[in-house]
Design a protein that fits this description.
Two copies of one chain form a homodimer. Chain A is mainly α. The first copy, chain A, is built from seven helices and three strands; from the N terminus they run αααβααββαα. The first copy, chain A, has one domain (about 35-145): Arc Repressor Mutant, subunit A (Orthogonal Bundle), CATH 1.10.10.10. Helices cover about 50% and strands about 10% of the residues of chain A. A three-stranded antiparallel beta sheet of chain A has the order 1-3-2. The longest helix of chain A is centred in the C-terminal third of the chain and has 19 residues, at about 100-120. Chain A is globular, with a radius of gyration of 17 Å. Chain B binds a DNA duplex through helix 1, helix 4 and helix 5.
Amino acid sequence: MAKIKENSTNSFNRKFLTDCDLTYALQLMGGRWKLLILMRLTSGTQRFGELKKKITNITERMLTLQLREMEADGLITRQVFAEVPPRVEYTLTEIGKELISICDALHTWGARHRFQVAGEVSALSHDDVAEFSDSPPSAQLNDMV
Amino acid sequence: MAKIKENSTNSFNRKFLTDCDLTYALQLMGGRWKLLILMRLTSGTQRFGELKKKITNITERMLTLQLREMEADGLITRQVFAEVPPRVEYTLTEIGKELISICDALHTWGARHRFQVAGEVSALSHDDVAEFSDSPPSAQLNDMV
DNA sequence: GCCATTACTTACATTTTTGTATGTACCATA
DNA sequence: TATGGTACATACAAAAATGTAAGTAATGGC
């Protein structure tokens, strides 16, 4: 997403692919950190700082950008509390929640693919990266998400 | 994918996210044209030229690049026939086929999302872009794929 | 010999995405 | 008065993805 320059073939193709429901969906979830954010929010509302802490390696700028796009795309809602220091909470929308099961399927597929092509299992243990412990809806996920 | 420079934070993060099965999966299917290629192949083996014709707006270079990555990732196989002019056929692998149902779900979700946020229905009709008629496995798809 | 066909390759340019570094507002507390 | 915490914004730089234009190899048909 970000800036859109009306003329280039590149941005034309992006728009063109928006017409297909499948590639449209990919555009909504395709950012580098978006699925991780989404999975973090499956356990419920989270503050900006909580997300930042739990999503290893993401920078504040990237987190902000991805959250803003997800908000603009209707995947999450953003609630600002008039406090000092500021508090901002992010929550999955209904349509956002509907992505969870697809993510679960993708996660499973990814693990199967990894196992098949490399004969190896997920490299990360629970301790290497932040966990995802408090998650009733998709408790099978066992690595970063 | 493409070129990888070992040192940058950018490529480090790419590798880092490879450790998570979910973001790993996203990397495999995340190219701009990959899902379209995949859906085209659901109806069976296709030649390079057939894919090129059916996937509107893709250039030969992009088609080549995406196909090569998908082959390297084990999503498709590539068979070259020693003929002149050359003939090259692409076929989904088993693990590649396992993505189809996920794509179907994503497609459905995309349509629902589009309808919800904009109150509009898929912009493309069957005639605007190449169709996807000969597809037993996922016959619900109705736009580009 | 010349052209058409197919599936590419290569060099290059442009656009988009991602990351770095620094600054800001607000108010409570020390 | 100075400091700390939170959730950003901004200017800039680097890297990656995408697109353009041209060329290539092999061979059969004219």
